[in-house]
Write a structure and sequence with these properties.
Elements (H helix, E strand, L loop, with lengths): L19 H35 L1 H26 L4 H50 L7 H25 L10 H18 L3 H9 L3 H40 L5 H11 L5 H18 L1 H27 L7 H44 L38
Length: 406
């Protein structure tokens, strides 16, 4: 009578290997589990974004306050280390920040009001000249075609302007005005600067270990990354605005001061902001000073942006953030599409925060798996946890002739 222990297991052939049907079913089972997990994660993310949309009125001033705090915190920390009370140091920096902002506004607004009529008149003349050029050879565009093009462009600009105006503070209801939002952010800046260093210890005491330790570490890294991004963009934007502004003043382009401020602010929206600010400067130079000046302005902007993109920004951001330019562009596009100007402004900090979370999770996974992560920037082929030709250290040795498949 044959021994039942010698018979192959159910779903296996005579050699002990699983049948093809069993392999396929096992793959389907694993794929189904992974697909269900993905669906659950996507559903959780959808609920999270839905909640963010519901609480956007509260979150918007908090986000603005955190970004402002990253700029004001270094001098506040310097004063606190020298014995200045936290409340006094925070109040002094807030007064200085508001004063600088009010001074910039007081400088650019009168310039806009004074030069706007002249600029509008020159813009009208420029449109007429452009119309005459399009209707002449070699294009020979008819009046009806030109009217249709103008109407289409005008409608598009009007709809875009409405969308932009609505997206600046999307989610803020009629009862909550922009001034209330900014005032709330200002109050939050004071308390964040004054009591911010107490947050991580409070989180450790409240949440407990190890969760509090993990959350505190992630938040600390987010703060460091966000601060590095804001300070880096401020330096890059200042250099861009200074160099481009010098060229605009030398060429006597109208509204040069306003364009300098727009160039500086546009630098905080990577890629897109520089493009929009540069296009606006070239357009004003074309309308007011002619084609030659516009081409010179275009050349200055291209040179400055090449210097920024290839030398200055990579050098400064190498230690503050580790985001590829494609990720930055996609983040700005997605943020601007979903939330308008506010989304475009907050897109890169949000992407940097998500990157911090993913890197920390990768570190924890590697730690649990007993792996050592390679240094940042190391090629994939240059790091191997276990050599391909050597067995794992704890693998039992076996005679190849007696090895049996699992």
């Amino acid at each position: 009578m044959p021994d039942s222990s010698d018979s192959p297991p159910t779903g296996a052939d005579d050699r002990g290997y699983p049948t093809r049907a069993r392999v396929v079913l096992a793959g389907l089972k694993a794929s189904s589990i992974v697909a269900l997990q993905i669906v659950l994660v996507v559903a959780a993310l959808w609920i999270l974004f839905w909640l963010l949309g519901k609480f956007w009125v509260v979150l918007l001033p908090i986000l603005f306050a955190i970004i402002v705090c990253t700029v004001l915190w270094p001098p506040v920390r310097w004063m606190r280390k020298r014995g200045v009370p936290p409340a006094a140091a925070s109040l002094v920096m807030m007064v200085l920040g508001v004063g600088v902002l009010a001074g910039v506004i007081s400088l650019i607004v009168p310039s806009i009001v004074r030069q706007a009529p002249e600029l509008a008149s020159r813009a009208t003349d420029g449109v007429h000249k452009l119309q005459d050029w399009i209707q002449g050879p070699p294009l020979n565009v008819k009046d009806e075609q030109l009217d249709n093009i103008v109407n289409t462009v005008t409608d598009k600009l009007q709809s875009s302007a409405s969308s932009i105006a609505a997206g600046v503070f999307s989610g803020v209801g009629t009862a909550t005005s922009i001034l209330v939002t900014l005032f709330t952010a200002l109050i939050l800046v004071f308390f964040f600067l004054k009591d911010g260093p107490k947050f991580i210890p409070w989180l450790d005491r409240t949440v407990g270990k190890p969760s509090g330790t993990h959350v505190g570490e992630v938040l600390t890294r987010m703060w460091t990354s966000l601060g590095g991004f804001i300070r880096t963009q401020a330096i890059v934007s200042f250099v861009d605005a200074t160099l481009i502004g010098a060229g605009l003043f030398i060429l006597q382009v109208p509204l040069a001061g306003v364009l300098v401020v727009i160039t500086f602010l546009g630098g905080f929206i990577p890629i897109v902001g520089a493009f929009v600010a540069g296009a606006l400067a070239v357009l004003i130079a074309l309308v007011s000073n002619g084609l030659t000046t516009a081409l010179i302005v275009l050349g200055i902007i291209l040179v400055v942006q090449q210097l920024e993109g290839n030398v200055l920004q990579p050098w400064l951001q190498s230690k503050s953030m580790d985001l590829h330019a494609v990720i930055v562009l996609l983040a700005v596009t997605l943020g601007g599409t979903l939330f308008g100007i506010t989304g475009a402004f907050l897109a890169v900090p949000a992407a940097a925060a998500i990157a911090v979370v993913l890197r920390y999770l990768n570190e924890q996974i590697a730690l649990r798996a007993g792996e050592s992560l390679p240094p940042e920037g190391t090629p994939v082929t240059a790091h191997k946890s276990v050599p391909d030709d050597d067995p794992p250290p704890d693998a039992p040795s076996a005679d190849p002739g007696t090895a049996t498949p699992s």
